[in-house]
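Researcher: Next entry in the queue.
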Amino acid sequence: MAVPAVELSAQTAIRDSVELDPIVVTASHSPKTLKDAPVVTRLITLHDIKIADATNIQDMLIQEIPGLEFGFAMAQETSLNMSGFGGNSILFLVDGERMAGETMDNVDYNRMNLDNVGRIEIVKGSSSALYGSNAVGGVVNIISRENIEPWTANASTRFNSFGNEWRNSANFSFNNTKWNSQTSFQHTDVDPIDLPKAHSSEEIAM
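Model: Structure for this entry, 206 residues:
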């Protein structure tokens, strides 16, 4: 009976030595364990991304972050609201660099394919001391996925009955120790929305 106890303790020691606390960088501009980060940080891991029913950053954040929602502003541009703060107060980063291409204080949240993402770090609350006035409401840092396999290829397609939306994507990557490259394509096709025809004043009078 002593042998199973020894095996169990050995397995526990091995498990404890492997399960390390995740490292985050967004809250302090330097690597810190998640539990030692000076500001509460929400970490979306690669495992979370793989099991989620999402194909872009917008869908992923809606599923994982309470109090975050997307709507439509003027000209039907997508707008962000996170705990009362709009897109002009939430800073989006890619590997620590500010994401370009803002329109009406919001970036195109659909353009980033999750095939390229390794993890996402979200810091809620004021981070303006580190990142400037655009981070009053928080920071979302999208960290690219590192290629480990010599090469990978992936293709997927998804259909949404709302608007008859088709979303097709393909991804190819290779790694030969000296060179590391990842290329992805994504195409979204949505049927236009037909608004009812407006009646003229003559038709209304009749």
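Model: The CA atoms of residues 7 and 68 lie 46 Å apart.
Researcher: Noted, moving on.
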